[in-house]
Amino acid sequence: MPVLEAVQLGKQYDHSTAALSDLNLSIDSGEIFCLLGQNGAGKTTTINLFLGFVEATRGKALVNGVEVRPNDPKTKKFIAYIPEVVQLYGNLTGVENLDFFSRLAGFRYSIGELSAFLTKADLGPDAQSRKLSTYSKGMRQKVGIAIALAKNADAILMDEPTSGLDPKATDEFTKICKELALEGKSIFMATHDIFNAVNVGTRIGIMKQGRLVHTLDTSQITAGELQQLYLETI
Ligand SMILES: Nc1ncnc2c1ncn2[C@@H]1O[C@H](COP(=O)(O)OP(=O)(O)OP(=O)(O)O)[C@@H](O)[C@H]1O
Fold first, then answer.
1. Most exposed: 33, 159, 193, 216, by fewest CB within 10 Å?
2. What are the CA-CA distances from residue 45 to residues 9, 35, 87, 126, 177 (Å)?
3. What pTM did the predictor assign?
4. Which run of H or E residues covers position 205?
């Protein structure tokens, strides 16, 4: 069974044209699916439909075979979400933030366990005990990853996770994503970074005006070819 599945999924906000139309997509355990598309193409809408933040006007989104419904916690426990800027408490340390958000998700961990999640997310011991107000954007992303790990989510959804990260931080983030996928997590990422999409993704989707117009295996395409296809498509 796919971890994330969209069946004829569509969304129309009010009287506007459809933000998403007829999306059919299956993402398995261990896959990293990178969704490309211009501003307004429908990437965030797709993520929001899986999260249950907005309600589908057509079709359905499923997580582990369970249909997503807004305000229904059933599918939320399977998913973690990492927004472009991970919102955390500046006056709490990395460990304290992770503890707070783990408790919100219903998990209580020892300091050692919390520290192990942060270490796995590539945040060293010095950083773990520092206040979040001193963290870089890349470090905040790592706390976001640790929160996903602590929640034991099967799917991690990310909206432009590498935007604004320097090349080293992007590389570190990419390595963590690959490790998580090897452990069986499903990752769904909206991104504008074509090079990183080819580097990190197992599959790429290109969306235009709410429609998924291309789906490719990254083994079949170079970054240059993807860029060409993207520019021809949008
Ligand atoms: N809450 C909303 N109400 C009305 N229209 C919306 C709402 N959210 C998004 N839209 C519209 O839906 C379309 C798709 O937007 P969406 O944010 O999903 O695109 P995107 O691909 O994520 O863009 P970006 O790369 O800028 O984040 C756009 O036309 C946008 O204006």
1. 216
2. 11, 12, 20, 37, 22
3. 0.95
4. strand 203-208
ipTM field = 0.96
The DSSP bridge pattern shows strands 186-190 and 32-37 to be parallel
pLDDT (tens digit per residue) in 38-95:
999 999 999 999 999 999 999 999 999 999 998 888 999 999 999 988 899 999 999 9
Domains, the chain, in order of start with CATH, read: 30-41+74-233 (3.40.50.300)
Taking the C-alpha atoms of residue 162 and residue 175, their distance in angstroms, rounded to an integer, is: 12
Q: Does ligand 1 come within 6 angstroms of the Cβ of 44?
A: yes
Q: Which of 43, 50, 55, 189 to mutate to test the pocket of ligand 1 (most atoms within 8 A of CB)?
A: 43
d(CA 122, CA 141): 10
- Which stretches of 72-121 are assigned E, i.e. beta strand? 79-82
